[in-house]
């Protein structure tokens, strides 16, 4: 295809409840959407960067800046673009994976819509429904946490993930495990909040039969994750550290991770995400689909990715209403009956969802920026 213009949209999406992690509290999402207009039609991609550089070094203003200054001009200069060529064209820019991923996703959406193929089919999806988990923020008290968790179980979620940090770990995890009973899937995510001297404390989590502990230490610190994995029975899972398929293989070989959280934004795009999946599958490492509080645009692509055969654990692929009263697209809703706790993989062309123009306008925080 030939890209005619790229429009950057900025939208404020209030969350149904504030989301607290070890790195901060978020009350709204500052969403950057990339709209590619080409000779074969349009496509949309969502940038998952947060408003502030707290989860990782990327943040939404930085992503918008690198898109308008470097990434979009590089694609506009190409006479012919395919989703498969985007990463190579953008490789001259170091890092900025979330910005690159959003642009690649928009090109892929346009390409697949033109071909009439769904993202699931393109990625190699092998199921029509995916198992859903929910990520539960740090709460004001253990009672509030138990209420929130009970609500999600009632809604059908198949796995609970608790955000933890020093001072909010053993007690809340113990309380939730008691409430859930021994069989429900329970895991924790520390978003890099611990240090090597916390290994003995983290080892106490073994008592709670967790599915995994996600990213206890800083992104760069593969060695301490390997040291923890050697000390505990609970599987160690990496999120922030896994920047691409090569890093994933290295971390696996060093014994730092035995499960991987795959987020397309973090690894620079859905194509690289599929590569991480394929590699993990080849070495028998389970993967699951992470989330970044996506609107329906990013959620649709995540659900398609989560339908690949190596995604053997429920993902952070929650229903739209877990975060938003109204979604930017048709909402994702959990199934019922045998599909309780699952989301259906969209089967329409591209992402299979449509951006609601009325909401895009109503919630816009700036004028759409047209780059050509
Ligand atoms: O570490 O997985 C994470 C949200 C924002 C940034 C990082 C993370 C998260 C979540 C929520 O845990 C995932 C979701 O439900 O979208
Ligand atoms: Mg995480």
UniProtKB/TrEMBL annotation:
Question: Which cofactors are reported in the record for this sequence?
Answer: a divalent metal cation
GO MF term list: metal ion binding; O-succinylbenzoate synthase activity; racemase and epimerase activity
GO BP terms, alphabetized = menaquinone biosynthetic process
**Keywords on record:** Lyase, Magnesium, Metal-binding
Mandelate racemase/muconate lactonizing enzyme C-terminal domain span = 142-235
Q: What is its EC number?
A: 4.2.1.113
Tell me the protein's name: o-succinylbenzoate synthase
Lineage of the species this protein comes from: Bacteria, Bacillati, Actinomycetota, Actinomycetes, Micrococcales
* Gene that encodes it: menC
